[in-house]
Design brief:
Elements lengths: L2 H18 L5 H29 L11 H22 L5 H4 L4 H43 L6 H17 L4 H7 L4 E3 L10 H4 L3 E3 L6 H9 L14 H21 L22 H18 L8 H18 L7 H57 L4
Antiparallel strand pairs: 1-2
């Protein structure tokens, strides 16, 4: 997390903590609460604006790269911490149970439960990406030889063919055929005579679980507050719901997950809201990438996977036409591709495990926050229940 962002968050949380512990008049309290809500909106907008602008510069992290996904998870955790401070910190539990919060807050908590499944699915998907990395590493080790002989090329071709085949997946076809408890990237193990080499490229989720259905369920009743509600606590709850859905949608778009058919359509956000505009910009960019890759049936938009797939196909073509001794010019081209593939493997080796740890952190943070909100709702229920 950038130092300025961390400092801004610290000062914001400290400011709310001090204010909530002060004894203030009702008018002053309302004015300061409005100011806190406006500041929270600004922080959310700024965070996603930075994420969006970083994808437009050559020096920034590429959209949907491992490093970029880690950034969006960082920003999510910051938003979540500030959200709890705005809605919960030092607040009378009875305020949380009043309309419209008595409706929109349970809806947010329901989205949180659904997002936990998404976190699990994405974590398993990243395990499968690690298996792709291992196949690429086998190919790199085989082709990084001088002189390059038939044996090394055959070994590389076997690994690369498995890699390229594993990267292909038709979500619509899979949805039509139904799901299995264990899903491979591209093929049903039972129908594949070479299923042994694909076995490690699979994940386990509940039989009928669908990433697309999960995201659509999170979006189904997501609506911006109107009228007087738009200036109250319903607004940050809507904002946090939107941030949660966007982050989960992004993870599912980037990482191989079970049944993603139909996720290319992004959910609507009100364009008139300043904080939502950079989020809309990110949605549109990701949806555009999705449309480009959807027809090819690619398993995920993770930037490193896309580059790995392209290089893998090029090197398979080289292996198919290889004759010893190969032309020097062709070998120079292959060497560049092998070096690039090696760099991608290195990035994966350095980034995938921290990314998984971050997703686990998001998972546990969401569990804790949901528990905190449920406790407050329980307290509010007890306060409103007349003594016998």
């Amino acid at each position: 997390m950038p130092a300025t962002t961390e400092n801004n968050q610290g000062s914001f949380l400290g400011r709310i903590s001090i204010r909530r512990n002060q004894v203030m008049s009702m008018d002053g309290s309302h004015d300061q609460e409005v100011e806190d809500l406006e500041l929270f909106q600004k922080h959310v907008g700024d965070r996603f604006s930075e994420l969006l602008s970083s994808t437009n510069t050559s020096s920034g992290d590429a959209l949907l790269s491992i490093a970029w996904l880690r950034r969006i998870l960082d920003e999510f955790l910051c938003c979540e911490a500030e959200f709890k401070a705005v809605v919960l910190m030092g607040r009378d539990p009875s305020q949380i149970a009043k309309p419209p919060l008595d409706k929109v807050l349970p809806e947010l908590l329901d989205r949180v439960v659904k997002s936990l499944d998404v976190c699990n699915a994405v974590t398993l998907g990243l395990d499968a990406v690690k298996n792709l990395q291992r196949l690429a590493e086998i190919a790199v080790a085989a082709l990084d030889q001088t002189p390059l002989g038939d044996g090394q090329v055959r070994r590389a071709k076997k690994a690369l063919s498995a890699l390229v085949a594993a990267m292909l997946h038709d979500d619509s076809n899979a949805a039509a055929k139904g799901t299995e408890r264990t899903r491979s990237f591209g093929r049903r193990a039972g129908n594949n005579t070479n299923s042994g080499k694909y076995k490690s490229l699979s994940w386990s989720m509940a039989k009928n679980w669908s990433a697309a259905k999960q995201i659509h369920a999170m979006i189904s009743n997501l609506a911006a507050p109107r009228g007087a509600e738009s200036s109250g606590l319903a607004q940050p709850i809507y904002m946090m719901s939107s941030v949660l859905v966007l982050v989960m949608w992004t993870l599912v778009a980037a990482v191989p997950c079970q049944e993603r058919n139909g996720l290319g359509t992004h959910f609507p956000l009100p364009r008139q809201l300043g904080w939502a505009q950079p989020m809309i910009g990110l949605q549109e960019k990701i949806a555009e990438e999705w449309k480009k890759k959807e027809k090819k049936g690619n398993v995920g938009l993770l930037e490193e996977m896309q580059r790995m797939d392209k290089l893998g196909q090029s090197l398979v073509e080289f292996a198919d036409s290889f004759q010893f001794p190969a032309e020097a010019e062709r070998l120079d081209e292959v060497k560049k591709h092998v070096e690039e593939l090696g760099d991608i493997c290195k990035k994966m080796d350095e980034g995938l495990e921290p990314l998984q740890q971050q997703i686990r952190e998001v998972f546990h943070r969401l569990v804790r926050s949901r528990t905190e909100f449920l406790l407050v709702l329980d307290q509010a229920g007890m306060l409103s229940t007349p003594a016998l």
